[in-house]
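User: I'm preparing a small set of examples for a lab meeting where we compare how different chains pack in three dimensions. I only have the primary sequence for this one, and I'd like the structure in token form so I can line it up with the others. Please keep the answer compact; I'll paste it straight into my notes.
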Amino acid sequence: MLKGGNGQNGGSRRRILLVDDEADILEVLELALLKMGMDVERAMTVAEAKRHLEKGGFHLCLTDMRLPDGSGLDLVEFIGRHCPAVPVAVITAFGSTENAVAALKAGAFDYLSKPVSLEQLRSLVKSALTLPEPAPSQGAARGLLGSSPAMEEARRLIDKLARSQAPVYITGESGSGKELAARLIHEQSARAAKPFVAVNCGAIPENLVESEFFGYKKGAFTGAEQDRDGFFQAADGGTLFLDEVADLPLSMQVKLLRAIQEKKVRKVGATQEENVDVRIISATHQSLSECVESGRFRQDLYYRLNVIELKMPPLREMAGDIPPIVEAVLRRLAEQAGLETVPAISRDAMEALCRHPFPGNVRELENILERALALSSGGAINPEDLNLPTPSGEFAPPAAEAPDQAYSLPDYLDQVERAAILSALEKTRYNKTAAAKLLGISFRALRYRLERLGLD
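Assistant: Understood. Below is the structure token output for the 456-residue chain.
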């Protein structure tokens, strides 16, 4: 491995390698970087750049895509193999989305479009020089539990993605930890000190989507009594996590695509655009490629979001991880409840959990254990405390006990009702309106029952 650096060596001046075959562009970029206090080396070919890199000591490489003896992608791949601690950014022709995406997939830290904006250049350089050193995976310590090969691979990719600015598309079933993965990427990145803004795209009314994302000016519409920033401005310098991105209306998808490509947004009612520096991480439990095929999602936006895909494994594919996850969740729940000791779980209960398919994944497991902790009457959690669904998918009511230990009828009915409501909520991804419809009751009746049972 060649020697390199990433800006973590105290107060020494940072060295940047500029690669371009146009002398005037090199001159402009070098002057801008010198004003930032950087040391700059120039190269006009891939071969010359490789010779500089072999000597080591660089903290960033900035290369044009088109060079006389090759491509900027050649340098991206060379640096990835021989000096991975050195971030590399590419300069692409205006409107060359394909080249930008190809560079990010090859491992580039970020890209700039011609003509290069000096403000965007300064922002990119500052981000690249604050990247943390590559470190062993920290996912387990931060809540991403499990040691199965699938989870280890997810953690490895999270650590790699934290050292890039590339858009990330996280796939996985509901409750599999997509938002947690997005937060881990952000927290281990150069953007960690800036905001992480999570947005549920399916929860925003269509007529409010644009103003929520981009903000609005005073008087832009009825009720706009003052200027307001949107999600992009709130996440400036940090990460914007678009959960359930497939639910965005087509009209908003066009505007989102432009904001990502131009790195600029215009508030509703404004005449001027403003620069925003935001990394996009998106997720959905749907198949985005199928949404593209059905015409519900724009293909060009799909390719911009799906630069690098991270798959979060479902819990049923990590059966061996269930016991340690159960123990970790019970420890956390006991701490939150102020319990002095962590409740034990019987062998039968653990075996029942290991057999359960968990359509709601880790989120469902957490809810089951929280419910069991509230229902258990002895020193250990037993199978009947779990109220696991039967094979048909319906919750089994609590087993009848001996007359001298029987529940009072109200308590028994409350347990049955609680189990049915939680089952419906898990099936509808905690959409209360949909859960009420599934249960055959009104939304108001569901809300009343949630309050009465302490589930709201």
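A couple of notes for your slides: The chain has a mean pLDDT of 85. The longest strand covers residues 279-284.

User: Perfect, thanks.
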